[in-house]
Amino acid sequence: MKKLNYLFVFLLILAASGCAPDAPEQKILTDDERMEWWRDARFGMFIHWGAYAIPGGERNGEICKGGAEWIMDKLDYTIEDYEKVVAEFNPVDFDADEWVRIAKDAGMKYIILTSKHHDGFSLWDSEVTDYDIMDAAPFKRDIVRELAEACKKGGIKFGVYHSIVDWHHPQAQAPLYPNYNAGQKDQTIVNPEFPKYYENYLKPQVKELLTNYDDIAVVWFDGDWIADYTTEMGKELYSFIREIQPNVIVNNRVDKGRMGMEGMDREGEFAGDFGTPEQEIPATGIDSDWESCMTMNGSWGYKPSDHKWKSSEVLIHNLVDIVSKGGNFLLNVGPDGQGLFPQESIDRLAAMGKWTKVNGESIYGAKASPYDRPEWGRYTSKDGVVYAHVFDWPEDGRLAINPEMKVKKTSLLASPSTPVEFDEATHSIQLPTAAPDTIVTVIKLELL
Ligand code: FHN
């Protein structure tokens, strides 16, 4: 019996005797209070990491199509073959504090780590399985705990991505088991064992994450598409989570309302606190909570053969575009099998940090503006101020401003002392000849 369990039994007896010290009551926040930090944060880091980082999307010279985190399915590993990959997972260069430093320096305010992806391998010390980092891999360190603690120390929020799909658990795949991926291809196959997996494995794992790691701020479900997972399960799971941790935030993939990759719920009552557009940004603003998640290249998991890296200019434009429409940007990093971020990711995050350090005032806590999107860029708004993000610097230096705005004062966010005069007659601003920031220059418009 693990030492920990003796302690647990002792506490149980103490509680039964009525002598347990009162657990500090957690103030149950209103929905707006609960969402406040998330709405202010605007920019977070997604981390897809696990044993799939070892092959990096390649097996015997064959490259996995799509995300490298799908290699088990796409390159037809048997469960036994993939367990051998897990048995090699020993990322000795993993340094949670370094990951948090990079995220903070980029201007990111929260981190979402895959606690368990579709391959079923758990990155924490799970009590309900030995297919976890402590028992199935040589690493034997609780990655969820180390990153949660590093985030707390670094003053940023931590959450977990948790897959409903599980290609390793027998009940999650029966009667296909061990042919775990047939259900991916034929969603008409009914798995009578799935309710047992849901009740006896999925829920207990979610509960131990929310109970043993007291800093889980977000639960980011995925895998909602499988036919065996029902909206009744989704609604029950959402309530189950909020009973354990009333102030945690849960995405809409906990239920079945999501309309594909556009990520928002269709008409109807569905559980979940925010919509989840994936690899795309809504065309217009959306007046509810949502977060676009995106990769930097074409893969969520580490994939060295994928060189389709988005430029830091595109990533900064995406951040501004998303916030101008009222959303959050969850930008992904896929660490390698040693526990290191790819240099291409580090470089882009550093460039984003350089920009957010100067212009973060127009992002954090900002919302969509009530004004139509200008042709030259985007508007965000906060506390009676509109921030004009200029993507395309006007050749004549004159920037047309929405005529409905009653402008009191204008200034360059990056250099308040640089004069940018507002001309009432033409409702435009005379700008310096050259853009101070060639990616996005921000002009602060204080309104009457
Ligand atoms: O299948 C997953 C994929 O591996 C990745 O985790 C993304 C990111 O949210 N979600 C699913 C694909 O939509």
From TrEMBL:
Q: Which UniProt keywords apply?
A: Glycosidase, Hydrolase, Signal
Give the signal peptide as a residue range, or say none if absent.
Answer: 1-22
- Entry EC no(s): 3.2.1.51
Q: Would you say which domain of life the source belongs to? A: Bacteria
Stretches assigned to the Glycoside hydrolase family 29 N-terminal domain: 28-361
Q: TM spans, by residue?
A: none
Q: What class of enzyme is it?
A: hydrolase
Among InterPro entries, the record links this protein to: FUC_metazoa-typ (IPR016286), GH (IPR017853), Glyco_hydro_29 (IPR000933), Glyco_hydro_29_N (IPR057739), Glyco_hydro_b (IPR013780)
Instruction: State whether keyword Lyase applies.
Output: no
Query: Which PANTHER family does UniProt cross-reference here?
Result: ALPHA-L-FUCOSIDASE, ALPHA-L-FUCOSIDASE-RELATED
Q: Briefly, what is this protein's role?
A: Alpha-L-fucosidase is responsible for hydrolyzing the alpha-1,6-linked fucose joined to the reducing-end N-acetylglucosamine of the carbohydrate moieties of glycoproteins.
Protein name in the entry: alpha-L-fucosidase
Say which species the protein is native to: Algoriphagus jejuensis
Instruction: List the taxonomic lineage.
Output: Bacteria, Pseudomonadati, Bacteroidota, Cytophagia, Cytophagales
